[in-house]
Every structure is written in structure tokens, then in C-alpha cells.
């Protein structure tokens, strides 16, 4: 999934799927009290304070499969499950969810509402001006939902434009900008809430194609008799193929915590345990990555 900015109302922001937000309501009180004021200590002292408290607060956005509350009221998703492992290794035994909308994650982090963003957030230069990121724990290509047999032969945004296909994507998705860059008129894009609504639109014939991440499109079509997902592909950004990467976000002052997190993340990558953590949420080995935050931040 997608996107560019964090708290801005304009422009795409990445997968703003809000599935699960209602389920988060019961846990909303967790976000009412704020975390301790940031330290002026070089590199930050949050890691030490979290160890002393024994709990870290995770900003999540109720997005399946990235971070959500399941039907049993338990916190899960690729980012929270990874957070549980890494923070335990860092001496912090408990994670506590603080639910918010996706566009409020970075403002909430920087206003001390929680300690870390654990929502599979894409790393991009605009966000890198507001927060610091761990290295990505996954990479992601795009894919389309199309009718069975892909009758219009849609395999890229250029195809969508050339064949004048009726195009849809989700609220705040990066795919909006990818389509526009390919030459699709933004006002002609049908914006729907999420990939389930996108599947419904394709099945009903209201659109020819819905664009999302390779992961969410392949998962949502599994039980569909009328639609399928296309082979994953890299959208073009400034004329070059672009691969997105999702990561954890930290306040800019907390470099010690970010660096300690990266050390443990690197160990999990090398051992193969990272894939074992993410695989139950639909991730494949193709989505494992050696991309760095520095690369995705633009150097």
C-alpha cells in the first residue's frame, strides 16, 4: 500500500485502511495519557525509561495485516508481533496499543501520545523530515485486482491509461499518485475505503481495476469467484521503478532506541526469524528486504 505524507490532509499517505478501528475503541483509553516528556540527552534516554517501566506504547492504525486488534481483542499484526519480539530482547516485556487513524500516527508520536509507530509505515523523504525510521522489515510492490482472466490485460499503470480502464484505489493510498504520474486524471479515480470495497467494485463491474499492495490484493481475492490479482510490479516514480519499504518510526531525538532496534532487527533478518514472524500475515520471501531507511529517505 501506499503513500506520501503523515498528517497532511492533502496528498496520499499510504494504506489508510481503517479496518479494525471500531474494534480499537475499547482500547482507546490507552491513548489518553501521554508518555513522559522527551529528554534532551544526546541520542535520547527513552530506551532506559522504557526498560524501567517495562512497557512500550505502540501507535497503531487498525490496518489488517499491519497492526490491528483481532476478534478476541488481542493486539496483533506484522508490526506488533515483530515489536513484541524486539522489545523483549531490549528488556521491555510488554507492548501496549494506542489506536489512532493512520494520518495521526506521526503527529501523535511527536506529541508524545505513544513511544513508537508500529503500523508498517512506508518510509519516504517527506516523512523522514518528521521522524526517524528503523530499517524496513518488509518491502512491497503493487498489484491490481481485476476480473478473472484480466480481460483488459492490465499489468501496469501505463496499461490503465493506454486502455482507458476505469480505475479505483483506496483512500490515501500511494497508488493515487502512481496512477497520476502515469497520466491518469486524478478526478477520474474512484476512491473507495479499502481493498474489500475495491474488490466489490471490480466484481460489480463499476471499475475495471483496483490498485493496492501486492499483499492486500492477493489476500482479498482468495475467496472471490469473479476476480483475481495480477502479478506484482514496481510503479514508476520519476520514471524509475520504485519499491516501497515499511518500518517503525521514532521521534527524531531517540536515536539510541532506533539504533538498538535496528541491531535486533538485523539479527532477526539474518536468522530467518523475521520471515517466520511475518509469514502468518500473508508476507512472502519476496517481501523480505535489505533496503535501508537511508536509501528510502533519499540518501
TrEMBL record:
Coiled coil: none annotated. The keyword Metal-binding does not apply. Keywords: Signal. Residues 55-285 form the Solute-binding protein family 3/N-terminal domain. Signal peptide: none annotated. InterPro entries: Ectoine_EhuB, Solute-binding_3/MltF_N, TAT_signal. It comes from the Bacteria. This is Ectoine/hydroxyectoine ABC transporter substrate-binding protein EhuB. It comes from Streptomyces venetus.
Amino acid at each position: 500500500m501506499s503513500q506520501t505524507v503523515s498528517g497532511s490532509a492533502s496528498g496520499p499517505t499510504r494504506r489508510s485502511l481503517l479496518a479494525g478501528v471500531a474494534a480499537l475503541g475499547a482500547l482507546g483509553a490507552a491513548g489518553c495519557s501521554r508518555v513522559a516528556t522527551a529528554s534532551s540527552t544526546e541520542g535520547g534516554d527513552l530506551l532506559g525509561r522504557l526498560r524501567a517501566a517495562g512497557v512500550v506504547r505502540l501507535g497503531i492504525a487498525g490496518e489488517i495485516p499491519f497492526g490491528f486488534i483481532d476478534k478476541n481483542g488481542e493486539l496483533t499484526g506484522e508490526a506488533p508481533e515483530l515489536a513484541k519480539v524486539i522489545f523483549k530482547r531490549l528488556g521491555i516485556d510488554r507492548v501496549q496499543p494506542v489506536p489512532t487513524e493512520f494520518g495521526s500516527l506521526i503527529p501523535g508520536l511527536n506529541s508524545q501520545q505513544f513511544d513508537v509507530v508500529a503500523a508498517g509505515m512506508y518510509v519516504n523523504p517527506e516523512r523522514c523530515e518528521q521522524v526517524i525510521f528503523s530499517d524496513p522489515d518488509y518491502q512491497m510492490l503493487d498489484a491490481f485486482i481485476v476480473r478473472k482472466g484480466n480481460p483488459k490485460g492490465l499489468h501496469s499503470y501505463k496499461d490503465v491509461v493506454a486502455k482507458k480502464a476505469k480505475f479505483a484505489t483506496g483512500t490515501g493510498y500511494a497508488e493515487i499518485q502512481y496512477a497520476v504520474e502515469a497520466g491518469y486524471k486524478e478526478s477520474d479515480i474512484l476512491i473507495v475505503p479499502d481493498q474489500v470495497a475495491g474488490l466489490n467494485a471490480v466484481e460489480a463491474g463499476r471499475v475495471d481495476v483496483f490498485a493496492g499492495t501486492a499483499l492486500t490484493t492477493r489476500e482479498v481475492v482468495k475467496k472471490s469467484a469473479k476476480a483475481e490479482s495480477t502479478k506484482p510490479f514496481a510503479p514508476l516514480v520519476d520514471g524509475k521503478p520504485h519499491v516501497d519499504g515499511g518500518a517503525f518510526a521514532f521521534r527524531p531525538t531517540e536515536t539510541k532506541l532506533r539504533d538498538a532496534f535496528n541491531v535486533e532487527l538485523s539479527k532477526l533478518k539474518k536468522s530467518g526469524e523475521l520471515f517466520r514472524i511475518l509469514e502468518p500475515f500473508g508476507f512472502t520471501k519476496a517481501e523480505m528486504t535489505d533496503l535501508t531507511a537511508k536509501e528510502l529517505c533519499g540518501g
